[in-house]
Design brief:
With 396 residues, this protein is an alpha/beta fold. It is built from eleven helices and 16 strands. The radius of gyration is 24 Å and the shape is elongated.
Length: 396
């Protein structure tokens, strides 16, 4: 029996355990940077296994596991995240969240479950491998600066030759695997703008510095950042997601708080958008006589899938098309952000999507929705595809 067949057989034998792990984690979610129990669960899984385990890596609860074959070869990293979101779950799952206001609404429970079982299977076959497989159980993907940044900064991944990861998505049909070269997930920044004017009686606006009017003007003007400040060939988004000015009918408010985000698929657009927004904020002070403070934060960089590794993955998976999954398809760049980008800034690799649309659902709820669900069969596709990739790349 060839090594791939041995690995797949082990994965299939452990599928019930994979489901059990996913459902346990789903029922016990923890927020980013507070994943103490989840990290302890992961650490306990590797207890008495012949591996090297590093805990509390990168200023958080990350668990890094080295599966050393004892044979010469590459060091290849495989990553799964394990944090949840501050969302009250509205599904009818038997294993729905037991923690009010916290939910695995992005599939990180499934990521962790398939990677644990894949790691265990690789450990059992490690004498037949070459090189080292480094399992990266990552905390805090959802909250900037993201767990990946601290892990990379720790130096523990400095000797990686390649790195790979997966995200499950319910809007992609089960059985489909999406790959995309080069810029694949957008970089992101967030900002808070505080506009301080002078409040007063609604009937006497001449005695005020109307922060609401100033803020409304700014929201409209910010749309020109995309239409007039960035290259039309580059995808950029500027969104104001919150306009806070609580008050009543006959009072002009003296303070408004805006919260927003920018997204971009090329790194130069990060600074172009920032400079354009900053200039408009400065102009607002002169035009309306208000004081404006901006807190602008550069969060995740653009996730850039390396061409060589992405094409290699496509070739590897094409040979298995029609067996444990249906088809490899060419994906499109996404305006969402993903801190896996930090790994790819340092190490060649690729990050791809595995379809997880629930059975019989035409319009699934998206990631980060309180009714988010996945098809659990996607986890086996994740484990087999990533297992097949690592076996192939270790042998190169």
């Amino acid at each position: 029996m060839v090594l791939k067949e041995k690995l797949f057989k082990k994965l299939e034998e452990k599928e019930a355990c994979m489901l059990e792990i996913r459902r346990h984690l789903h029922a016990h979610p923890e927020l980013s940077f507070h994943e103490e129990h989840t990290a302890a669960f992961i650490q306990d899984f590797y207890k008495d296994k012949d591996v090297t385990v590093h805990t509390n890596v990168g200023g958080g609860h990350a668990v890094i596991v080295d599966i050393k074959s004892g044979n010469p070869g590459k060091v290849i990293g495989l990553r799964a995240d394990f944090d949840a979101l501050p969302i009250h779950e509205e599904t009818n799952l038997e294993f729905k969240s037991k923690t009010d206001g916290v939910m695995h609404a992005c599939g990180h429970d499934a990521h962790t479950a398939y990677l644990l079982i894949l790691a265990e299977s690789l450990i059992e076959l490690k004498d037949e491998l070459s090189g080292t497989v480094r399992i990266i159980h990552q905390h805090a993907e959802e909250v900037p600066p993201g767990g990946a940044k601290g892990i990379v900064a720790s130096g523990i991944l400095d000797d990686l030759d390649e790195v790979y990861g997966i995200h499950v998505f319910p809007f992609v049909e089960l059985g489909k695997i999406e790959l995309h070269e080069k810029a694949t997930y957008a970089g992101s920044s967030t900002f808070d703008i505080i506009i301080q004017g002078k409040g007063g009686h609604a009937a006497m606006p001449q005695n005020t510095k109307d922060a609401i009017v100033a803020a409304s003007y700014l929201v409209t003007q910010l749309q020109t950042v995309v239409s007039r400040c960035t290259d039309p060939k580059n995808s950029v988004v500027v969104t104001i997601g919150s306009f806070e000015a609580p008050g009543t009918h006959n009072v002009i408010q003296g303070k408004v708080v805006l919260k927003g985000t920018t997204r971009y698929l090329d790194e130069p657009s990060k600074d172009i958008a920032y400079e354009a927004i900053k200039n408009q904020v400065e102009g607002l002070e002169k035009s309306f006589g208000v004081k404006v403070d901006i807190d602008y934060r550069f969060n995740y960089p653009v996730l850039y899938n390396h061409v060589e590794q992405t094409r290699a993955v496509r070739d590897i998976l094409k040979l298995s098309e029609g067996s444990y999954f249906d088809k490899v398809i060419e994906g499109e760049p996404l305006s969402g952000s993903e801190d896996f980008a930090y790994y790819l800034m340092k190490t060649p690799g690729t990050f791809y999507i595995v379809g997880a649309r629930p059975e019989g659902i035409e319009e699934p709820y998206p990631n980060h929705h309180p009714k988010f669900e996945i098809h659990e069969d996607a986890m086996m596709i994740c484990a087999k595809s990533l297992g097949e990739i690592v076996l192939n790349r270790l042998a190169k």
